[in-house]
Design a protein that fits this description.
Elements: H1 2-22, E1 36-37, E2 44-45, E3 64-66, E4 72-74, E5 82-88, H2 96-109, E6 116-122, H3 130-139, E7 147-150, H4 154-164, H5 169-174, E8 185-189, E9 195-200, H6 204-218
Parallel strand pairs: 5-6, 6-7
Antiparallel strand pairs: 1-2, 3-4, 5-8, 8-9
Length: about 220
């Protein structure tokens, strides 16, 4: 009994410390800045602006795709904007409805904020034509000035998912370019095109965390 009386308080103390640290992944020392993600391993890195590595931080590459209105969208469209990206397809019966519902929550939260955009890339561009995406947008209340649904060349989309947004975890392991891209990730991108957060877009809890992080990122100089 004496041994248990010593072990239990120690265990409780350790648990409290573990939870308190795990709840604050955005902290590094005294900084409230969000980390950067430079590799497909998605290891967070806090890099100071004065650091030599700051100018080599990974950025989303150039691309050219088409939105639900038939307009060409390039990386330039998101210049000086904070945005959240994900990958879906219109007939997906599994995780995609959950992704769309949580994207709608982001749209509602930031509807009046012109600095925040949303983008969903179809991973089945051979089926998700512009008319299909336009109908999907209408069915799901997508606001065209806030949320882009993109289709186009499959190789462009898949390269973006895997090498740009690091959204395909399986590809990071297998390197199988023939595999289907299907990911639950929401990826937070800053005004300079850098990855600042990765979230499970099927979870309401992670969506709320993403909203907090967007607000943190807006304060960044």
């Amino acid at each position: 009994m004496k041994l248990l009386s010593k072990i239990i308080p120690t265990a409780i103390t350790c648990l409290v410390l573990l939870v308190s640290v795990g709840c604050k992944p955005e902290k590094s020392g005294n900084s409230d800045r969000l980390p950067f993600f430079n590799t497909a391993e998605l290891t967070p890195e806090w890099i100071a602006p004065e650091s030599p590595e700051y100018n080599t931080i990974h950025k989303i590459p150039e691309f050219s795709l088409v939105n639900q209105e038939g307009a060409t969208i390039t990386r330039e469209f998101f210049k000086d904007k904070i945005y959240v990206a994900d990958f879906f397809f219109a007939t997906c019966p599994g995780i995609c409805p959950m992704l769309t519902n949580n994207m709608k929550k982001l749209q509602e939260e930031f509807e009046g904020d012109h600095d925040i955009l949303l983008v969903s890339h179809t991973v089945m561009p051979e089926r998700d034509s512009v008319p299909v995406l336009k109908r999907y947008a209408a069915d799901n209340g997508v606001l065209g000035n806030k949320w882009q649904l993109l289709t186009g060349d499959k190789e462009v989309v898949y390269n973006l998912a895997r090498k740009g947004y690091y959204a395909d975890r399986e590809f990071a392991v297998t390197k199988d370019t023939s595999a289907f891209v299907h990911t639950e990730n929401f990826v937070l991108i800053d005004k300079k095109g850098r990855i600042r957060g990765v979230y499970n877009g099927t979870l309401e809890m992670d969506t709320r965390r993403l909203i907090r992080h967007i607000k943190t990122l807006k304060k960044e100089k």
